Amino acid sequence: MTGLMTGRVPWQPCSLWQKLEAQTAHGLSVGALQSIETTVERVDDGDIHFCVYVLANLARKEKARTQQGKTTPVNPFLPYEEDLYVTDILETHLCLLNKFNVVDHHFLIVTRAFEPQENWLTLADFEALAYCLGEVDGLAFFNGGTLAGASQPHKHLQVLPRLGEMATFPIEAIIRKGDVKPFVAAETVLASDVNQLPSLPFRHAIALLAFEPNDVPRNAKKMAQQYLSQYRALLTAVGIDSENEWCDTQTAPYNLLCTRQWMMIVPRSQEKFAGISVNSLGFAGSLLVKNQQTLEALKAIGPVTLLEHVGYSRD
Question: Global pTM?
Answer without folding.
Answer: 0.91
